[in-house]
TrEMBL record:
Keyword Chloroplast listed: no
InterPro entries hit by this protein: MoaB/Mog-like_dom_sf, MoaB/Mog_dom, MPT_Adenylyltrnsfr/MoaC-Rel
Biological pathway: Cofactor biosynthesis; molybdopterin biosynthesis
Gene3D superfamilies: MoaB/Mog-like domain
Name of the molecule in the record: Molybdenum cofactor biosynthesis protein
Length: 168
């Protein structure tokens, strides 16, 4: 007899990388990783982990490369997308990406603007693909995370589907 209950499928495997200067002062990521984990899990993603690292180019590069080699479908970085000299997340992400998805990055900025966060357009965050992994930079404020993920999640599901379909 066929099952009439809901099928359990997941949107993909994800990893969260929180990038913060707070580690220098002995603090964590302010709950950013937990919030992203919650939002991704609610959307059907299996979150393999959440790591918090210092805003250091080498540490960011290692975290991104490890995630890509590990085969996760989506990496969401949180923080380090601004204009200060220590905000290097987009610079390092650009080195790791094979292809950028500028429209998705722009959509993240505009979703912030639509929510009334006028400094959202200052974010230099990138979104793109490295191998078969989608990588997205999201600003570190709780508002940016909520607005950004509301925009990113449906787009990420579509990109992941395309990357995993050998027919496309």
């Amino acid at each position: 007899m066929p099952s009439t209950g809901p099928t359990t499928t997941h949107a993909g495997r994800a990893l969260i990388v929180s990038i913060t200067d707070q580690l220098v002062h002995g603090e964590g990521d302010g709950g950013a990783g937990a919030l992203v984990t919650e939002l991704l899990t609610e959307a059907g993603f299996v979150v393999d982990g959440s790591v918090t690292i210092a805003s250091d180019a080498g540490d960011i590069r290692n975290a991104l490369n490890t995630a890509v080699i590990g085969g996760v479908d989506l990496v969401v970085t949180v923080g380090g997308t601004g204009v200060s000299p220590r905000d290097v997340t987009p610079d390092v992400t650009g080195e790791v990406l094979d292809r950028e998805l500028p429209g998705v990055a722009q959509a993240l900025r505009w979703s912030g603007m639509a929510a009334g966060v006028t400094d959202a357009v200052i974010s230099r965050g990138l979104v793109g693909v490295s191998g078969s992994t989608m990588v997205a930079n999201v600003a570190g404020s709780r508002t940016a995370i909520r607005d950004g993920l509301a925009t990113l999640i449906p787009l990420a599901k579509h990109v992941i589907e395309e990357l995993s379909d050998p027919e496309i």
